[in-house]
Design goal:
Chains A, B: Belongs to the HAD-like hydrolase superfamily. Chains A, B: It is found in: Cytoplasm; Nucleus. 2 copies of one chain form a homodimer. Chain A is of the alpha/beta class. The first copy, chain A, has 2 domains: 110 residues, HAD superfamily/HAD-like (Rossmann fold); 105 residues, Rossmann fold. Chain A contains 8 helices and 14 strands. Chain A is globular, with a radius of gyration of 19 Å.
């Protein structure tokens, strides 16, 4: 199939970065469920000769546990191809010799093994979900305000995500809350930070214009990738809402019904792949 | 005593608006405790012939219960002289025929008696304290995002307040969180909203330049009053922090050690009062 009018850029795609939650699967009770057609779509993309990486702001479990959950759903994914914020943050903490107060999900704690958390001099928040209690937020705030120069790291800046039982507030909401309380601007590790996408591109050995990001989050996936020079496709699954297509500042290079449709469009356009 | 250099404005003061928490008392277990000298200072101001009103963003109890708590501490205050956000908001809800989803402290619920909360079409948040759980925030968010045009009311926009056991996050923090989550700008009822100060000034029958606001919150008390043309004194009690005196955008007309010192300065300068 030839690329549709205005979609000629699909022909130069050599690599694909896939968001996970809302693109591959919907999260929820029992770990969630695969979005129809996505398991096969991932397989087709990986078999095609394209360079495929996975990029998630998931911070409710370690990367290993997270990939294991996707394997159980039927996805054949290697841990080394998955990029998530916690390992990137641990590198930063070590480099800058920082001692974090951690407000993160219990499932993520193992990523911080060996990190000194005594007498904390910065605050780290992830998608802590139920742990975002008034008491825990007060505690994080007191660490912040007790510093001469408060330092707040946020594992992503998402507004909300979709679980099988409804929309849930994401880490960016509590980042914004603590920013306001502590009069501080958070350093974001994860999408849409350019540094984070840069690490993935480096691992792919590709130039930004050769890569397309596929996500359900218009601002963090599509907008973040576009800011780095990549193309961005928004899929109409996960947290997608029709109003996204009239967003004031971010316009996707394409909107597709789901990952299966996006993979089909890429694979039938790119000269390096199946036709 | 003559007014100090640069403080000649004290001579034209005919009315005083007092913030309550952090100026009259420190809140905390058992209702809190009076700040030394403040009971006598309130009495002196009221006996002097100045018009005195109280203006609080307190939303953990009804106005009646709140005044009763202060009476137990030793303050002689009339309910009709106390202005708080909830009654002002109830008027707005009635005028605009809105049905709120309430995320407020249990102690405040009685203020909303008779207000229709079925099929909510807006969200109201107050200082809900422990009720700011992840689950309750998700619920408020879902009401917001379910509206074609989300509408969020916040009873104040304070960052934090001081209780006897430490600093606590105030409603403004959760307002900011829901603003970000729902991509909406809250309508603030209470300090520092000009409408709210305007209601108090009208009740005092005074012009703004004749009135001084005394508070521990530089931005919401002092800055808010100054925006309305009043003078503003910050007291070094409650949530005051030394860095407030180097704030980037708000500069108080005077900084005083406590309410007793502020009352003394006003009463020894104003020609209409005791010397």
């Amino acid at each position: 199939m030839a690329a549709a009018s205005g979609m000629e850029w699909l022909k130069s795609v050599k690599g694909v970065i896939l968001d996970m939650c809302g693109v591959l699967y919907d999260s929820g009770e029992g770990g969630g469920q695969a979005i129809p057609g996505s398991i096969e779509a991932v397989k087709r993309l990986m078999d095609s000769g394209l360079t495929v990486r996975f990029c998630t702001n998931e911070t409710q479990s370690t990367r290993e546990q997270f990939v294991q959950k996707l394997r159980v759903m039927g996805f054949d994914i290697s841990v080394s191809h998955v990029f998530s914020p916690a390992p990137a943050l641990v590198r930063i903490l070590r480099e800058r010799r920082l001692r974090p107060h951690l407000l993160v999900h219990d499932g993520l704690m193992a990523e911080f093994e060996g990190v000194d958390t005594s007498s904390p001099n910065c605050v780290v928040i992830g998608d802590a979900a139920e742990k975002f209690s008034y008491q825990n937020l007060n505690e994080a705030f007191r660490v912040l305000i007790g510093q001469e120069k408060p330092l707040l790291f946020s594992l992503g800046r998402g507004r909300y995500y979709k679980e099988t039982d409804g929309l849930k507030l994401d880490v960016g909401v509590f980042m914004t809350a603590l920013e306001y309380a502590g009069d501080v601007q958070a350093e974001v590790v994860g999408k849409p930070a350019a540094d984070f996408f840069g690490t993935v591109l480096k691992d792919m050995s590709l130039q930004p214009h050769e890569v397309v990001m596929i996500g359900d989050d218009l601002v963090n996936d599509v907008g973040g990738a576009q800011s780095c020079g990549m193309k961005g496709i928004q899929v109409r699954t996960g947290k997608y809402r029709p109003s996204d297509e009239q967003h004031a500042s971010v316009r996707a290079d394409a909107y597709m019904d789901d990952l299966a449709a996006a993979a089909h469009a890429i694979l039938t356009s790119s000269p390096t792949t199946e036709r």
